[in-house]
Amino acid sequence: MISPARSKGLPRLPECPLIGFIARLDFQKGVDILSYECKFKVVLGCWEKEHEEWIAYAEPSLKERLRGRGGFSSPISHRIIAGCDILLIPSRFEPCGSNSMRSMRYGTIPVVHATGGIQDSVKNFNIDLESRDEGTGYVYM
């Protein structure tokens, strides 16, 4: 499936992963983790005023690296998860981790903060060559 972001003009560069973020853009969900350092980002979420202004300001100047959409749409969230290489879930606290489970279903790598239900649903990938088949994503503290 073609990512909605790539179809909206982000360049296709195989060496650069497409990173998705689907959440309310607030402190609880780790929105401050989103930085200008990521090569490509697709952002979907209900925005607080300051973050809405940041996206509105940043998107035109970062048109080769960023796409954002306010509000929530279940069909679009599924397209983003399916079309991204990585789903970033930096929540400071999270009760369930349903997006991480969706990402694993679509084959998108979840990169998650070790908290709440997320740490229960994502098993950290082990780089040890003897256990290469273990893990479902990356968990950081």
Automatic annotation (TrEMBL):
Entry-linked SUPFAM superfamilies: UDP-Glycosyltransferase/glycogen phosphorylase
Keyword Plastid: yes
Domain of life: Eukaryota
Compartments, record wording: Plastid, Amyloplast
Entry keywords, A to Z: Amyloplast, Plastid
GO CC, alphabetical: amyloplast; chloroplast
Main location: plastid
Protein name: Glycosyl transferase family 1 domain-containing protein
Span of the signal peptide: none
